[in-house]
From TrEMBL:
PANTHER family: CORE-2/I-BRANCHING BETA-1,6-N-ACETYLGLUCOSAMINYLTRANSFERASE FAMILY PROTEIN-RELATED, GLYCOSYLTRANSFERASE BC10
GO molecular function: glycosyltransferase activity
Transmembrane segments: none
Membrane topology recorded in Swiss-Prot or TrEMBL: Single-pass type II membrane protein
Subcellular location as annotated: Membrane
Record InterPro entries: BC10-like (IPR044174), Glyco_trans_14 (IPR003406)
Name of the protein in its database record: Core-2/I-branching beta-1,6-N-acetylglucosaminyltransferase family protein
Amino acid sequence: MEEEISRRGTVGFLFRKLVVDAESVQSDYDAREFFVASSEAEDRLLVHCSESASSGHGLGRFPSGSRGGENKFSVYVHSRPGFLFNKATTRSVYFLNRQVNDSIQVDWGEASMIVAERILLRHALEDTYNERFAFLSDSCIPLYNFSYIYDYIMSTSTSFVDSFADTKEGRYNPRMNPVIPVYNWRKGSQWAVLTRKHAEVIVRDDVVFPIFQWHCKANHRYTVLALSKCTCETEDFFRDQPADASKEHNCIPDEHYVQTLLAEGLEGELTRRSLTHSSWDLSSSKDRERRGWHPVTYKFSDATPTLLQSIKEIDNINYETEYRKEWCTSKGNPAPCFLFARKFTRPAALRLLNTSALEL
């Protein structure tokens, strides 16, 4: 029987400048082990779907047998307060001694989601060698080996931030003006890969963040209804509600904050797309749970090489609100748009690994 992951946290890692030469075969094997471990470990965490993980110095190291890979990434984990990764709660060495010591309780649809991300970035920035900061969910899988992913991300000076003008949903609250003018209001996926400069901007921000705390929240009228009458996930229930500008604004902070903050003077330094693929529309599916515009969770039966190949073949992204088509490139050449994909249940991810479909 398939095992659903009902509580989701996030895991991430940080990319560093190449310190020593790495031999890709052994390093890629260790990276494969890392990704499997992240899925297993986060599944055991009693976390909220809003909790995030980033990366930083001294937390994640490849074993000495990786011949150089230990200097290419490290990990921070934000878990619910009171939870401890140890040998009883995870089989992975990559999660031991990697938790931040000032984690907070995170509630979906609240600014606490952003607070958790800022905590992680703050810790990671303490190491001056840390250069890229990638946010991933425990339901993410890598589509390529570590060497390819590392090279793809490190070969550009931009951050990868899914960002587009939000003109349809009525989430913008006029009370945000003039600190956040409507022409700077952006939406996008929270699964970003940030440069050090942009990570520092987020951590140091004391102007835009308070506005989000005051005026960007999930509509609590819907929260009560969801808890009392809805048997589906609260997150999915929220996403299905129609936006109505005449009522309280239903604003989801993590879908707007980074994008809107960086829209002021820094948008030219972004590659305005995410490296993490999500399927937002399976309206033709017979499975009622898969209809709507919330991301689809792939189950064991979905996890096939054909699915992965279809994601790998995506080479452009269309942003309707801006009449913009983003053709994906790396080093000036056409390239796949996505390095990761979500949302995969643990059984689905393990099935892909067991069939060698991920080719890690």
